[in-house]
User: Fold these one by one.
Assistant:
Number 1:
Amino acid sequence: MFDDLDTDRRPLVLIWEVTQACGLACRHCRADAKPARHPDELTTAEGKRLLDDAAAFGDGQLVVLSGGDPLARDDLLELVSYGDDRGLRMTITPSGTRSLTPDRVEALADAGVRRMALSLDGATRDIHDRFRGEESFESTLEAAEAASDAALPLQINTTVCAETVDELPAIRDRVRDLGAVLWSVFFLVPVGRGRILDPISPERAEAVMEWLHGVAESEPFGVKTTEAPFYRRVGIQSDGDEGAARRRGGITAGRGFAFVSHTGEAYPSGFLPESAGNVRDRSIVDIYRHSDLFESLREPDRLKGKCGACEFRRVCGGSRSRAFATTGDPLESDPLCPYVPEGYDGELPATLGAGSEGPAGTTDAAD
């Protein structure tokens, strides 16, 4: 037997990108989604085999059906129901389009979806829709209300970049008003269409992390960061409770996290598109546990630069996706983190972004 949370043995989060088809044209889209489905997507039978393999990780494995827009697949409910029958915790991240009707939300809940995540990148229609490239604000709010009516727990995802960072306080209020159980705050990785967006600076990112810790303490919903694991380091430094930081979770690409693309390629993360094998040829369990790429990402002592020298590397580890996107090496330092370990005199990563202010109403300590 092994510890159910042993990230050497199983991912805490397994994402399956069931399709890259989507009716939106979001400015940050990792997948560079298109309206039409790809002809080489995993078939229904192949998808069920993937879900069978996922169940082999152990009871209650979390599976996130993502895209593109998962609703573009006409077998979606069948796949949800199948995964639920196999004992998987099935969750979904649909796009906020007119196809996400209250009836479809209810059908997803009835099929076995345990949580639905919706994206909100602006607190108002104009800002959100401009970022998403299409009208989606009203559809997103209607879907959130439908989730509440269906007793389906709601998660809100928000992308942080130079264009959206000032919206965070107002989005926080929306998250509270929508009754979400979790706010997942994603810090931009320059992949896909996101390469054209401006990131925030490391100093501003640090200020946002400090602000988010305050949000987590004062709001009824949980807060987590995506592709910004130094949120945990900031928590340790602010309250000195390393144990609490560990309990908040400590997953990074390949370490507690795995991603299967629409064509079956297994990546450490959707934002780290380096394949470790294809689930058509090899089970996701074998790829996750035994591929060289995944194993290397689970060894903090193999990290390079200041991440490798950092005393917080075992509870943080930096964004391996951002390191890969900016250097081509997933073991290099995360350029978004401004922390320099004491005594470190090696090379520092190139600075990202600009500006030092935090979200409205907050300031960076450097100000």
Number 2:
Amino acid sequence: MVILKWIAGIAAAFLMGKLVKKIKLPEILGWLIAGMILGPNAAGVLPQTLLDSSWYKVIISWMQCSFGIMLGTELIWRKLKSYGQALVLTTLTQSLGTFAVVTLVFGIIFHFSGIPVYLAAAFGGIALATAPAPALSIVQEFQTKGPVTDTLLPMAVLDDVVGIVVFFTVDSIITRAVSGGTVPLYMIPVMIFLPILIGVAIGFLLSAP
């Protein structure tokens, strides 16, 4: 029954996407609306037991990897250079600016609430999490081309790279603080840069002629 509900949910999301497209909006908006309505926090057609099942998590992980590879093909170095320093500076400014503001706000709240202030940095790292898949979906659906599109996808990918670096840095430092220094210092850069290095290596292999 859980698998049948999952299939029915996919079909409902597909139909909702087609309906939303009729009013000149991206299909992915219909998928998101269907997910919110059918999910465990609304109608409950897709129960929490489905979201917690191991096979569902495996499927989601494979889908995430597929989208990551599709987005990673946009980060070819020769194309990245053509976008100029403005793209990198804009991405760093808005990402690190978001991290600083969110961390500051939660730090003040936690200070007066008696909650460890260092947890504010974790919230700041979480705030950097973005989903570039919708942008890729919209670009592919409408076959958009031009300077905005050429800048949007690389910026979305770079934004996630910055988010990963910041989050894992904060997570590693908090883990070491909470564990009383039992986590070796050399593990901090490993936790931060190993996933990025793996992604870069795969990206180069897939983009090679």
Number 3:
Amino acid sequence: MVAVECGDMERESENGLRPTLWRTARALANAERLALLRAAVVSDGTTDVSRLAEAAGLARSTASGYLRMLNARGLLAVDRRDGRVFYGPGTDRSLPVAAAIQQSFVRYVRKPDLPRDWIERTLPSIRAFSHFRRLALLEDLVRNPGLPQQDLAARSRLCAPVFALHFGTLLRSGFVRAEPDGSVSLLRPPPPFATVLLATLRKGLDSPSPAS
């Protein structure tokens, strides 16, 4: 008899890349943090925390905590000068996954035709990658295209409520679809910005890197 898990506690994965990817996606999976990240990117590091907070409509303390989180995941560089703290785009060589994601984000939010509702369009895709259990489901779909949904559920070893919770998030992502025949497919091309997340996941399956 196959054991199933109904708990949803966070834990490290055997895949060395996965902790970096899902934790980086989790840092992005918040509308206010996305707005702050874009403000810092657009300003090219010339705007301090107080002005970034004002641009995002947040209290300075809240914005400061969010910016520190984004910096910790390698999504922003920090510069302290003249008693002020500035955040802007910059890569962290110790977090290559975050660097690739950041570079894709910079290109995306600097597009002249970026839609006004870009955050609402982007969040569902990011949330698909922001939990280790959802990454496990995505990995199985990448390895086994067209896998029947019931097989995906059985292979996940999750109880029905937990599987339904995470699978529902994947369906809302915009690039996972339940087909009429019961199979599950990954749509191509994925939504904007989801491309780099999916490519990062595929790269990790080919050549796992040390956890970060």
